[in-house]
């Protein structure tokens, strides 16, 4: 289960060895602090992976946070709930900081723009589902170099905007 969480939510390529190391470590003694967990994570990774630009435990902690807070289902739920209740001309702007979140927003906006479930080879829509609006950002807006220099946390952010009909 840990390996799945680390892989799905953290996109951690070393998810299996990390999960295995956590389990074996906990069999001998508990992991009491985040620093102890970081040491366990580092010990499960190959040396070359420790030299990457980002902290070796970043993706694991991110995965744990996403799983515990159910962040992806929260994003999906709020988008499916809010768009149908917005006033015509209303806009929703969403900033994401992770590729999984961005994929959910992109898919939700695309589904609201074109909810038709008819097969593509049908000449006319027969499902009766109407567009709720349009995506105003075909490609996400990303921060400029100046913004990233001023605010390094913005480097992974993406902005997508949807306008309701």
Outline the structure in words.
The protein is elongated. The chain folds into two domains: 2-69, Putative methyltransferase TM0872, insert domain (DNA polymerase, domain 1, Orthogonal Bundle), CATH 1.10.150.170; 71-164, Rossmann fold (3-Layer(aba) Sandwich), CATH 3.40.50. Helix content is 50%, strand content 10%. A three-stranded antiparallel sheet has the order 1-3-2, covered by helices on one side. It has helices at residues 2-10, 15-28, 34-44, 47-50, 58-69, 71-82, 99-113, 145-150; strands spanning 91-96, 133-135, 158-164. The relative contact order is 0.12. The mean pLDDT is 95. It contains eight helices and three strands, in the order ααααααβαβαβ. It starts with a helix and ends with a strand. With 165 residues, the chain is mainly alpha-helical.
Can you tell me the CATH architecture of the largest domain? 3-Layer(aba) Sandwich
CATH class of the largest domain: Alpha Beta
Strand order across the largest sheet? 1-3-2
| Span between termini | 43 Å
Fold-level CATH name of the largest domain: Rossmann fold
**How much of the residues is beta strand, in percent?**
5-15%
| Integer tally of domains | 2
- By oligomeric state, this entry counts as single chain
Unreliable sequence segments = none
In short:
Helices cover 50% and strands 10% of the residues. The chain is built from 8 helices and 3 strands; from the N terminus they run ααααααβαβαβ. The longest helix is centred in the middle third of the chain and has 15 residues.
Task: Furnish the topology, listing elements before pairings.
Blueprint: H1 2-10, H2 15-28, H3 34-44, H4 47-50, H5 58-69, H6 71-82, E1 91-96, H7 99-113, E2 133-135, H8 145-150, E3 158-164
Antiparallel strand pairs: 1-3, 2-3
